[in-house]
Amino acid sequence: MLTTKYNGTSGVREHIMMMNDMAAKLNGMDMAISEGFLVHFIMTSLPAQFGPFKINYNTQKEKWKMSELIAMCVEEEERLKTEKPDFAHAAIESPKQKKNNGKGKNKKDDGLGINKASTSGTKRVFKCNHCKKPGHVRKECTKFRAWLAKKGIPFREDAGKGKKEA
């Protein structure tokens, strides 16, 4: 019971109930654990994300009962879940050689792709989809605009921005 830690795979309520069951089994073997001591064991089994929650508990004069502890821990767990930002999963090309099933030229990726962040993490370096050069996007590419003019296709600034309004 001393080494049991909350790992986050199941809910905090299940973790507390499991530790409560362990204490009940110990009580059945005439090794009684007081409720205050059990609350202390549970508080020490919580991970570092619950740090401010633990500090709040320790600064209060009155100690919580099991039902209060469960309610407060579940509330804190929900707060932590909503506080954690969601990250979009993006497919990123690796800097290794691209596979192209024997078609065309084998080119090595220079590590610069569309919407890839640089090492600083804040500035983005773009690569043109037309000429494959970094620093601009296709709509700003002079070669792309020349190609459109050669084909007789007018360039539209609003192209690719969603539905057209009639």
TrEMBL record:
InterPro entries, per the entry: Znf_CCHC, Znf_CCHC_sf
Stretches with biased composition (Basic residues): 97-106
Pfam family, one: Retrotran_gag_2
Statement: the UniProt record of this protein carries the keyword Metal-binding: yes
Assigned keywords, A-Z: Metal-binding, Zinc, Zinc-finger
SUPFAM superfamilies for this protein: Retrovirus zinc finger-like domains
Signal peptide region: none
Domain CCHC-type: 127-143
Protein name: CCHC-type domain-containing protein
Organism for this UniProt entry: Rhynchospora pubera
